[in-house]
């Protein structure tokens, strides 16, 4: 598997994993909603649910320990780099506010 394929798969699975879990409740104002809009919404929700289910099934089938280790390693390296640069920017901002040279 190529790195680009793994990254694309990771991003798709990440987007599906962070989906907000909630129930779809129709609006109480029935006059404002049209039947076409309702059909489109239901269709999109059904497509989204089927895509989410397919991605979850794919993840369960391909849950390899090496892939999980690589993803964890990429996450730890990227968070370490981001936190380092955030600390540097914070120090620069504080020294700018204090007026130290």
UniProtKB/TrEMBL annotation:
The keyword Membrane does not apply. Belongs to the apolipoprotein C2 family. InterPro entries: Apo-CII, ApoC-II_dom_sf. It comes from the Eukaryota. Keywords: Chylomicron, Glycoprotein, HDL, LDL, Lipid degradation, Lipid metabolism, Lipid transport, Secreted, Sialic acid, Signal, Transport, VLDL. The keyword Signal applies. Residues 1-22 form the signal peptide. Its main location: secreted. It is found in: Secreted. Component of chylomicrons, very low-density lipoproteins (VLDL), low-density lipoproteins (LDL), and high-density lipoproteins (HDL) in plasma. Plays an important role in lipoprotein metabolism as an activator of lipoprotein lipase. This is Apolipoprotein C-II.
């Amino acid at each position: 598997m190529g790195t680009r394929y793994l990254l694309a798969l990771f991003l798709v699975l990440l987007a599906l994993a962070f989906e907000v879990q909630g129930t779809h409740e129709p609006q109480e104002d029935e006059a404002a909603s049209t039947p076409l809009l309702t059909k489109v919404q239901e269709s999109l929700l059904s497509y989204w649910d089927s895509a989410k289910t397919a991605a979850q099934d794919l993840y369960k089938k391909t849950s390899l320990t090496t892939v999980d280790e690589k993803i964890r390693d990429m996450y730890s390296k990227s968070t370490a780099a981001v936190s380092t640069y955030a600390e540097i920017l914070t120090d620069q901002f504080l020294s700018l506010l204090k007026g130290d040279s």
